[in-house]
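Per reviewer request, we include the raw input and output of the structure prediction for the construct analysed in the revised manuscript.
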Amino acid sequence: MDYLLMVIGLLLLIGGAESLVKGAARLAESVGVPSLVIGLTVVAFGTSAPELAVSIRAALTGQREMAMANVLGSNIFNVLFILGLSAMIIPLTISRQLIRQDVPIMIIISALVLSMTVDGQLSRGNSAVLVVLLIGYTVFLFVQGKRTAHVKTTASNSEAVTEPIKKNAPAWHSLLWLAIGLSCLIFGANVLVDSAVNIARVFEISEAVIGLTILAVGTSLPEVVTSIVASLRGQRDIAVGNVVGSNTFNLLAVLGISGLVSEQGLVGSLQLVQQDFPIMLAVALLCAAVIFHRRVPEPYRRRDLF
């Protein structure tokens, strides 16, 4: 029964994330937020909503190690599997912004979180720092996107920047999608965490292993679908940006918020601190090396990627 509940929980998380992204994207477009910013924030953050829901649920129910392991496993899976699979479908095209800004930010935040958890604890104070950084990073992206959109609109009538996703969609439609998505995420997270904990107890598996494997892969399914679809449609920069943005969101929002809601913060085992956190940082560095190697030569770069 727990296996069936786990599948149901995963399906609810995937459907809820899709609904949440759709509603948020329509609301963002209705107030004039550029599509580039939506891709870097709403889409990437929305596909990480299952990780957020699961980790918050785990933190509130006392599975503090599972909440942390879920983030680590998801970040490692995102780069090694999703980015690798996307590159196998179609050669990746990497924009200058990803190389110079977003990937370095992801690496710096990964190193920061590693330094915060060297003692096996992520305190509520450190969690608050991560949330503040999240707010600052999001505001920075929106301000930067607004400026970029203004420059592009002045230079040329770029359809990708100026045309909204749904100009005439009523606001209540977007709010309804948001409400449905949030409800599915909350209920799906409860079902998934409870079933995963029960399975772990039956097989005497630690919370860290469950978080690093079953929960990490399951909650990363929205990123898998988004990046694969983007690759198949030739939107190669979006496929990479989704992974980078999701990893950054996982570290800042998922760890930060779940650490805040837990009365004692989050905790990590010796394995997480000495093995899995360094692996996550190494994978982030590997991502930077691969992305830099796969950058498009200057004469052949598409103007719209910048």
